[in-house]
Amino acid sequence: MKILGIETSCDETAAAVVEDGTTILSSVVASQAAVHHPYGGVVPELASRKHIESILPVVNQSLSDAGLNPKDLDGVAVTRGPGLVGALLVGFCFAKSFAYALNIPWVGVDHLKGHLNSVFLEPPTPPFPFVALLASGGHTAIYHVVSHLQAECMGQTLDDAAGEAFDKVAKMLGLGYPGGRVVSEFAEKGNPNAVKFLKAYHDKNSFNFSFSGIKTAVSRYIQSHQERYQDQIADIAAAFQKSVVDVLTYQIIRAAKEKQCFHIALVGGVAANRNLRMRVGEEAVRNNFRLYLPSMALCGDNAAMIAALGYQCLKSANGPIGDISDDVYSRGNRSI
Ligand code: KG4
Ligand code: ZN
Fold it and tell me: Residue 200 pairs with which residues in a beta bridge?
């Protein structure tokens, strides 16, 4: 089955063709980063307009990269939520119309479940159940994943997402948007012990996170070191990154131990962070766990993960199939 995936939940217009839920025939991601960069964050109205401009060229590119015509497709999968409603609607309405015109099945899928399925697009793939840390610009949570379609949320952020904290710190340091990658590049050149920040919120009795405290600590430091902080950007980035990576690493390992589950995965944009990948990798070896990491291109938002999940929904007798009256949703559920 060849499924066209479409993703427009935030600031990437993406389309991909995936065969049988595992083989990527094409994956196109058009980033809007340049549009939002001057504002230091995503401007929802600009995102919607840019998706409208990009959706058709991106879908056409994904079909031509895969060497396919629309009539070769067996189904369409599209992100239904969570995300920016105006942005979601562009992909969702396009996918509905496209599938109806071709008379093929379509399905609206959950973006977070899409990230959890990103580990099935490259070998080795994890067996079920596995424990996954999903850390992105909009979400940070730990899931016990029992099937392609079902996952229990063990804990999640109480305020900012990890990626959002990276983006806000980048903005404070004048490093632009999106800031995760650039902050981590500075962090690699800095000394995490040169500046002292409190640890990011660490609750040993739950798997919840909070990153607003560390974000405020960075802001206060910058305010009280106005004349000097420009020379300390690498050290500030390194200390901030260590605080975030420490808590993410600690909690995913603790979650796997609690579930007695020896297969763990990192997914979402922040899973591209080299320091996080290394630290969780070291702890996985120490604990005899097996770690599954999507390649960098599959950590951030993409449509291949949406097509992979859509395949599972369309194949499964119990899987939800799209109906013309379906609508998008902006917020996620605890259990997905
Ligand atoms: O999954 P994603 O592309 O979009 C959402 O679903 O939110 O994640 C984007 C987030 C942004 O906040 C970005 O700054 C962060 O992932 N990110 C990183 C890195 N690369 C991207 N954060 C830390 N280190 C990185 N190397
Ligand atoms: Zn995402």
Answer: none
Q: Which residues of 172-196 are buried (b: 16+ CB within 10 A; e: fewer)?
A: bbebebbbbbbbbebbeebebeebe
What is this structure's pTM?
0.95
Residues with CB under 6 A from ligand 1: 10, 136-138, 163-164, 166-167, 178-181, 184, 268-270, 272-273, 300-301
The Å distance, Cα 289 to ligand 1 centre, comes to 25
Range(s) within the chain of domains with CATH label 3.30.420.40: 2-116+299-315, 124-293
Nearest to 156 by CA among 334, 304, 14: 334
326's tokens: 């379906």
Probe residue for ligand 1, chosen from 113, 115, 181 as the CB with the greatest number of ligand atoms within 8 Å: 181
CA of 135 to the centre of ligand 1 (A): 8
Q: Does domain 124-293 sit in CATH 3.30.420.40?
A: yes
pLDDT (tens digit per residue) in 284-305: 999 999 999 999 999 999 999 9
* Nearest residue (CA) to ligand 1, atom 16: 269
CATH architecture for segment(s) 2-116+299-315: 2-Layer Sandwich (3.30)
- Residue 158 tokens, joined: 């109480």
Cβ atoms within 10 Å of 317's Cβ, excluding its own: 4
